[in-house]
Amino acid sequence: MKIMTIYRRNCDYCELSYDKEYITRFCSRKCFYNSLLIISFHPQWRARQSFALSNEKNPNWSSDEVGYQGLHRWIRNHKEKSEFCENCGKQSLLDLANISGEYKREINDFKWLCKKCHMIYDGRKVPFPGRGENNHQAKLNEKQVRVIKWWRIINPKIRAKDIGKFFKVSDGTIYSIIYKKSWKHVTVN
Q: Is residue 165 part of a domain?
């Protein structure tokens, strides 16, 4: 037969006296969870814990060898967000842009930029290529487009496929010219 010892204690949360077969600080699970809620939501405790586990003191800290997302998250939490783009001054959604391209854990190595300025800064946005002959992908010039539109006015039964073969372009290109999807600025006089 097993002899059981009973321990008499006062609950740390509700301060009532209780008897248990083992040593514990609380009389019930309810008291235990309530004590956790009080501690974890108390502003002084949260501030102390936040400071105690910030930056290098945090067990998950990975020094300066941090990934792209982690670095941006860290900068976003530590760099004060501007309301305006630091490049053009517009008020819009802002991105964090790296200045040096080295992705160091330095707050001053990042700027808050609008999407347009960020893409231009990174070299991802190229200027509009232009329309008509100024477009680098143009296979026709304005004179040829005028001829295509003129042929279509004179003979509406001429097929786009035949015109395309003559100018060495696809019939889709001819259709987009005829139905004014492209080359809208060219008119037949």
A: yes
